[in-house]
Amino acid sequence: MAQPRVIRQRIWDSLKAVARPDTRFHLSFSEFIPDFEGVEQATDFIAELPAFKDSQLAFVTPDNSMTELRRRLISDGKAFVMSTYNMQRGFLYIAPGVVPAEAAPFAAWLDGMEHFARPVDLAELATIGRFDFLATGASAVTKDGIRFGKGHTYFDLEWGMFTDLGLVDEKTPVAAVVHDVQVVEEQLGASDTDIQVDYIATPTRLAKIERSNSRPRGIKWDRLSRDEIIHTPPLKELARMRGIA
User: Fold this and answer.
1) CATH annotation of 4-26+34-220
2) What is residue 191's predicted lDDT score, i.e. its pLDDT?
């Protein structure tokens, strides 16, 4: 069975032909999940999902491949939350109507999010409401919906925190937006922290995944070092809320 790091490196090599460079990290895919040619078509598939259309509060990752989806959420007047890069400044919340229509393209970029969104911590997130739709990028995703990112497991940690707070559950729809070259044939044994997505959207198709595994719940505190907890503000907040640190 191929190791995720081997698959990830192969995908990164293929991505160079279709990725849109980052303004800070160029094509250093170990530092960010890129936007790509055809992301508009992939996002079209997501925008047609009833789960997206009916969403009242979504969570979207800060991946570059999510920029177009964030723009559509803003244009549609939908509330959503985005984590900051590596969760170093927690989460940002955009309420419906706070972005002028003409500013939606700028607001969807990370710098624009910083301008229009307001910071929220976990305690406030718990009062805003449950997420009814989640969308994420990925370094790669298997055909059966097991996603993996840059290797830092931030989305898994976010999911763990959200389940701990009751903001998501087994039925919450999760979509991955990736290029076709990021969908891999290899089977990966899911770990007890891996999130199996419900949908994979690429520029050419939308795949509906029939999930076979239960999703994880909570944070595996025994797998985190004290430094990881202390230097990741939301983890530090949750640890304090749960009397762990």
Assistant:
1) 3.40.50.10420
2) 66
CB environment 13-28: b (16+ within 10 A), e (fewer):
eebeebbeebeeeeee
Residues 202, 182: Cα–Cα separation, whole Å? 9
DSSP state of 60: E
**DSSP code of residue 22:** B
Taking all residues of the chain, what is their mean pLDDT, rounded to a whole number?
92
Q: How many CB atoms lie within 10 A of CB 194?
A: 21
HSE-CB at 46 with a 13 A cutoff on CA atoms is 34
The pLDDT value given to residue 152: 57
- Which residue has 């803003």 as its token pair? 74
- Note the pLDDT tens digit of each residue in 108-149: 999 999 999 999 999 999 999 999 999 999 988 999 898 876
45 CB-contact burial (10 Å; exposed 0-12 / middle 13-18 / buried 19+): buried
The answer to whether the pTM exceeds 0.85 is yes
Q: Which residues of 115-142 are buried (b: 16+ CB within 10 A; e: fewer)?
A: ebbeebebeebbeeeebbbbbbbbbbbb
> What's the pLDDT at 2?
59
Whole-number Å distance between alpha carbons of 23 and 232: 24
Specify the length of the chain in residues: 245
Distance CA 117, CA 111 (A): 10
CA atoms of 44 and 46, how far apart (whole Å): 5
Q: Report domain extents, the chain.
A: 4-26+34-220
